[in-house]
Amino acid sequence: MKMDISPLGERCAKVTLEGRLDTPAVDSIETRFLASLVPGASNAIVDMSRVDFISSMGIRMLVSAARSLKLRQAVLAIYGVQEPVVQVLELAAIHQLIPICNTEADAQTAVGFPVV
Amino acid sequence: MATVQLKFPGTNAGLAGATSQLHAFLEGAVLAANRRYQIELTFDEIAGNIVRHAHPTLDVEVVVTLDGPEAVMTFVDDGPPFDASSHTPRALDTDLEHAQIGGLGIGLVRKFATRLGYELTPQRHNRLTVAIPIA
């Protein structure tokens, strides 16, 4: 699993994930993922277009970050999710907790980032 | 019929290696993509739970058999007795602020598994069997 985190304006971050979001992968990236977003209360958009597998551990990482950010008045949205991954997210009703957007622009809008 | 036997230490590194082995096995099988995904998901949920919660001292043993209309997966570990087949999945969350973190794995497996069976072996090892339709 590869993860890249970059600032997107003053109070927003873009996270790009690539590979499998399974138990071993989450074990290797979760601490950095949460530490990069939560303490600074950054709104976050997560590019999932290169994630081809997610299990409950990956869902847990996303929900954990989104819940912590909500408590700090920030929002996490994901976008570009591949169809097999969407199906798992739907089984877990994650669309009720986290905005699942089609495009990066949609995700920016969902977190209130000013689109120019 | 095609079978793969996986034996790995109960660590994340062991789990990662076994995940790669299973992935390679399934790549060589004639399976619909969604069925392949369900088998890999079941493996990650059950084997991941064993690694994170059971802390086995002996290697975890997993056998995956593709036999006609179903895939049968057997997981054996020497952690404390735990009957995952009788575990009641928790309700799904509808409110992020009060969402529970974790606890979704068995519920996901139950969405597509047709059978879950548990046995405590004479050696007091957990043996969980999961069947997934692949036809």
Could you describe the 3D structure shown?
The complex is a heterodimer of chains A (116) and B (135). Chain A is an alpha/beta fold and 116 residues long. In chain A, 40% of the residues lie in helices and 29% in strands. The longest helix of chain A has 15 residues, at 23-37. The N and C termini of chain A lie far apart (32 Å). The mean pLDDT of chain A is 94. Chain B is α+β, with helices and mostly antiparallel strands. In chain B, α1 (12-27) runs antiparallel to α2 (33-54) and α2 (33-54) packs antiparallel against α3 (105-112). The radius of gyration of chain B is 15 Å and the shape is globular. A five-stranded antiparallel β-sheet of chain B has the order 1-2-3-5-4, with helices on one face. The two termini of chain B are 13 Å apart. Helix content of chain B is 34%, strand content 27%.
Give the key terms.
heterodimer, A: 116 residues, alpha/beta, five-stranded mixed beta sheet, 4 helices, B: 135 residues, alpha+beta, five-stranded antiparallel beta sheet, globular
The whole-angstrom Rg of chain B is 15 Å
Portion in helices of chain A? 25-40%
Give the overall shape of chain A.
globular
Summarize model confidence as the mean pLDDT of chain B.
Answer: 94
Helical residues, percent of chain B: 25-40%
Number of continuous helical runs of chain B: 3
Report on the biggest sheet of chain B.
5 strands, antiparallel
Uncertain segments of chain A: none
Order of helices and strands of chain A: EEHEHEHEH
Multimer state: heterodimer
Which outline of chain B best applies? globular
Mean pLDDT, all residues of chain A: 94
Percent strand of chain B: 25-35%
Biggest sheet, spatial arrangement of strands of chain A = 1-2-3-4-5
Task: Tell me the fraction of residues in β-strands of chain A, as a range.
Answer: 25-35%
Low-confidence stretches of chain B: none
Total count of strands of chain B: 5
* Largest Cβ-defined interface: A-B, 27 and 31 residues
Q: Look at the helices and sheets of chain B and give the structural class.
A: alpha+beta
The number of distinct helices of chain A, counting runs of at least 4 residues, comes to 4
Distance between the termini of chain A: 32 Å
